[in-house]
Amino acid sequence: MGLWYDETLDDHTRLGLLVKETLFSAQSAFQKIEVIDTTGFGRVLVIDNVFMTSEYDEFLYHEMLAHPALTTAPSIERVLVIGGGDGGTVREVLRHSDVRECVLIEIDEMVVEASKQYLPGIGTAWDDPRLDLRFIDGIDYVKQSTDEKYDVILLDGTDPIGPGAVLFDESFYRGCKRMLSQEGVMALQSESPLLMMDIFVEIQHTLRKLFSEVHPYLGPVPLYGTGTWSWTWCSNTGEPLRPNPERQQAIVEGCKAYNEDLHQAVFALPNYVKRALKL
Ligand code: SPD
Questions:
Q1: At residue 43, what are phi and psi to the nearest 5 degrees?
Q2: Which residues contact ligand 1 via a Cβ below 6 A?
Q3: Does the structure show a pLDDT above 80 at 122?
C-alpha cells in the first residue's frame, strides 16, 4: 500500500490521491513544487500542497480555459497567457493556426522546468516558434505594460489564497482590460461555485465593474475537489455563444473534450449559480 497525498479543500473536506512515487519535490523562490505519480490520476503537479493539474483530467481544464475565448474573439493573432507554467494552456492556444504570437508569463521557472521533465504529455508546444516564454511576475508585467495590446488574454492562476490572491484583484483585472484590444476577449479560471461560492461571486462582481459582457461557464475537473469548476468569459463587445465555425472545425478533432455542442452547453448555468449571481 502506497502513501496518500491529501489536499485540504476546507475545514471539512480533503481530497486524497494514492501515490506510487514522488518524482520531484523542491522549494523554489516562490513556492513548494512537487510532481507525484498517482494510481488514479497519473502524474500530478502540486504547488504548495494544492493539486494543480493531472495527466488524467488536465484536458478538461485547459481546453475549457482556452477555446471558448479563442473561438469567439474577432481576432486571435496576439494571445497572452498569465500563469500556467505546466504548458497545458499554451498547448491549446497554439492549436489555432490564426495565433501568430503567444506570450506566456510565468513567475516561476522551476514550474516550467519540472513540467517539461515530468509532465511532457501536458506541455507539448514548448518548441513552437510562436511561443514567447517570459519568467516574470504577471502582476508587474500588467502594471508596467503601456502600449502592448492582445486579442485574447487567458488567466491560468492558482487559487486566490497566498501569493496567487493578487491575480484576482480588481486592479489586476483593470490592467488586463487595458491590455486587451478593443474587441478582445479575456477568460480566466474562476474557482468552484460549489466549494467557493463567495469567491466565485466576488470574482463575477469585480469583473462586472470592468466589462460589459461577463459570462461564467462550468465544467467538470475531478482533480479540483468538488469536481465542478468555473471559468469566466469577459469582453466589452460581442458575446460568447457565437463562435467562429471555421476556427472550431479546425481544432475539434484534436480536442478530447471541447466541441461545438459543449461550447454552447457550458454557458447554461444551474439555478444555484443563477440565483447567487441574481441572473
Ligand atoms: N484548485 C486549483 C486551481 C488551479 C487552477 N490552475 C491550474 C493550472 C493548470 N494549468
A1: -75, 140
A2: 50, 52-53, 61, 84, 86, 88-89, 156, 158-159, 189, 224
A3: yes
Judge whether 140 counts as a catalytic residue. no
Element (H, E) at 203: helix 197-210
Per-residue pLDDT reduced to its tens digit, 214-263: 999 999 999 998 899 999 999 999 899 999 999 999 999 999 999 999 99
- Looking up cell 461550447 gives 263
In this structure, whether the domain defined by 3-54 belongs to CATH 2.40.50.140 is answered with: no
DSSP assigned state of 269: P
**Does an H or E element contain 79, and which?**
strand 78-83
The candidate with the shortest Cα–Cα distance to 114, out of 47, 21, 183, 42, is 47
Strand segments (E) across 95-179: 101-105, 131-134, 150-156
If one residue of 158, 167, 168, 199 were mutated to test the ligand 1 pocket, choosing by the most ligand atoms within 8 A of its CB, it would be: 158
For 173, residues 6+ apart whose C-beta sits below 8 A from its C-beta are 206, 207, 210
**Domain segments of the chain: what residues?**
3-54, 58-277
Q: Give the confidence band of 166 by pLDDT, cuts at 50, 70, 90.
A: confident
In this structure, which residue's CA is closest to atom 7 in ligand 1? 52
Q: Is the pTM of this model over 0.85?
A: yes
d(CA 278, CA 221): 25
163 has pLDDT over 70: no
Q: What is the pLDDT of residue 261?
A: 98
Q: How far apart, in Å, are the Cα atoms of 248 and each of 66, 70, 128?
A: 12, 9, 21
Q: Which CATH number fits domain 58-277: 3.40.50.150, 3.30.420.270, 3.90.700.10, 1.10.10.10?
A: 3.40.50.150
Are 83 and 167 in contact by the 8 Å Cβ rule? The answer is yes
